[in-house]
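Async update (no meeting this week)

Hi team, since we skipped the sync, here's where things stand on the single-chain job. The sequence we agreed to prioritize is pasted below, unchanged from the tracker. I ran it this morning and attached the output directly underneath so nobody has to dig for it. Comments welcome in thread, and please keep replies under the output.
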Amino acid sequence: MQETGMARSARSVGAAKASAAVLVESRLVPPQLSATTLLARPGLSTLLHTGVGKRLVCITAPAGYGKTTALTQFVSQLEPHGVTVAWLSLEAQDNDPLLFFRYLAAALNHADPRLGRSVLAQTAGGSLASPDAIVASLLSDLGTDCGRLLLVLDDFHLIQHEGVHRHIEWLAGHLPPNVGVVIASRTRLPLSLSQWRVRNQLLELDAAHFGLALDEAADFVGRVSGAPLAREQLRALHDRTEGWIAGLQLASLALRESGDRGAFLRDFSGSDRDITDYLGEHVLDSLRPDLRDFLLDTAGLERFCAELCDEVLGRSDSRALLAEVQSRNLFLSGLDRTRTWFRYHHLFADYLRSRSRERQPEQSRAISLRASAWFQRQGHLHEAIRYAFDGQDFERAADLVAEFSAELVQHRGEHATLLGWLARLPQHLVHARPKIRVGHAWSLVLTRRYAEAEQELRALEQACSESGDAELRCMVEMIRCVYWAHAGEPLQAKATSETWLKSWPRADAFCTGVVANVLASGCCATDAFEQGEQALAVARRSFGESHADYGLAWAAALAVMLAIRRGDYHEAMVQVKAGIAVVERNLGLASYAGSMLALLAAEVCYEQGDLAGAQTFVDVGLPYVDDHGLVEMTTAGYLTRARLLRLRGEVAQADSCLLEGESLGHRLKLQRLALILSAERCALRLHAGSTEEAQKLGRSYGLIGYGAGNTPQAPAAPIEDDSVCLLHLRLRLAGAQGGNVAGALNDALRRALRDNHRAQVARLLVLKAVHQHRAQEGAQALRTLDEALDLSARCGLVRSLVDGDPVVLDMIETIRANRGGRPAQGSGQAPEAYLEQLLVAAGRSGEASPRTVRAGTRPGVASELLTERELKILRLLKAGLGNRELAQSLFVSEATVKWHLHNIFAKLGVKNRTSALARAQENSLL
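Output:
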């Protein structure tokens, strides 16, 4: 049967209506998400939930950051909480105000049939209702009792009509308290937000909030690519994409098709086909030609401002173009508060560069060289050199490196940067410039490339002999002094630095400061403390004259080393604080210079019982632990890290840490480093109660010898390091069958007294008290220990006693009991507060203080023992924050949070958070 024309017409009208209905329906509900790639993001969800009570939530981020996905997940969680959601996905056609408000009314009506009916009726009937009347009608509907409602407007950047902007701003400003609005856009919202910001009725989120964290990226990439990545591969991919979800997704899709994942990830950049197609289709090809050319021409600039762009491109409208790029949110990141300097997102920049290379390479090189000249005039030589290399003008690059090398290595300590530049320069250009070679030798020494440094120094010393250049010889001999100090030859360092200071009395102030620092390091190693202090005074004065913060940081670190060597940890902490103030002024604590102080500060904090502070400083210094020249700094890093791991119960990890450092010592031929860390490996076994294993390991290292019946004896070679000497005596004490340890103890005490190592004297007295206690000389043991404790208190020692033989703590409790609450009587007796500090650090109860602890409270719980930071953590715990949220709130690592909790639990005498909060409440600490 043939279909009539009327039937065909009716079917066409019906299909059109059905099509329209599907279109409307699809825009009034959140998009459907793939369950296979849907990623749970509890952190972001929690952040979005804080906006439920706000008047307005503004989300602005470029394409591909997962705004719509995150909002879809978020709104799906609201219904169980009684929140109704009206969703509208916007399109470009909605710039017609009437069509926009029709869809807005439809979204509200879809969420609640009582809303928007009048507006839908008016617009469907073809009446010419004004936008003002429509908005007034919608506001009237929303004023009814519709419960809590959230209106979501997605892809708002598509709406360019100023009238729509004005009406949405008015509507948002007059909504009842039960209604909130969420607006998601790729570009900055064209709305006045200050009124809501002032009233705390605004939540603003941007790309920084939507980028995936490393763990989230691991989950996401695994789902999309079909298999997880190795941790280092994942980290590289995450760094390249900066958490950009689109980049991660497109890379993951490519990984699914890649036969060699490692090769793909090594080569991964914005030029990959999927990234190129995405950026080309969605971003670049939609721009007008002049704006597209601007992006391509500036692609080679790592950072840029309007003035630089005008200079290298020969134009005068860069400021306006940058403003347009920024308003379009074209992956442009501001680098300062004034939004003067910018950079492109890494992947976007890579893509732009790949497109730019398709044009004229000569033009790109010319732009790079003009950028080099501009940065040189501005005094930014890093960039000047970079763009000289990019422009392939190696003569210019070599001249700039020669000009900048002294500043780079002497005042900034940026050795890797210099070495990287030299690797890119032709050797004949380097050899023709002695300034570069001096900087090269300096950097080789300070980066522990000693064999290469020795070769370069000999070549320079030969050049000095042939040329008779006094200035060059002065510099080379200075570096030779530093070489001896860093190569673990303190006697040579001390001798050559003394000679240099006499030979070059009118040398440059910076060079004088460097050699004075070397002399101070030699004095520290040889116990010439007074001469060392004098050398540091010269160094500080010289570096002050030359405004060399890097040298001052070294002087500060050496002052800490001198204090530690003497055994004065109170003074060491004073010097730590002074040094940190110096490096934070210009260099920053998280720098090579700052890490020297951080590693030493970690050792001091640990010794004084500040475990959280020790962990914080270890976290700062650890990335540089293998790069420092002086053994003391590297030793401090490995020892403190291992000890913190042991206290957390991670004994195997602690042993691995020590073994890693020991291997470094052997590789660099730094035998003292290897010896100290091998001794600590033995101490680790003593802590675990594995005496036989500790002694067996000690014999394998030559730390103890074999006596009759395998009794531990003195090693064949004398032991000079204090910590190794202590370990040797502890091993012998643990297996001693007679009185042969007493003589060794007394000999060690005489040496420590002679060398003025006060902390070592205190530690040896503690060992002597333990030996006397085991020899059934109880009364004498207590007297010896009291003397040791008195000295330990003045030295600032805590962990040296707490980490030792458990019998020491038993004896401390006996001393306290014998005093019966009476204060210490003169010298030779440790202060009562110090005994309390030791017992608390060990997790043992001290005597309750009636001023701070109420009756019925477990002894040892005192509010003054909790720091301000610990009290703040208690308050945050009460608010329900977990470790990650605590870390974010306090701007510290999760490991540091764990240490704070460990300290809090110990001080409060509890084992978990619930008990800690209950105990704190009992004592009115909250």
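Quick observations from my side:
Confidence is low (pLDDT under 50) at residues 1-23, 846-864.
The two ends are 86 Å apart (CA to CA).
Reply here if anything looks off.
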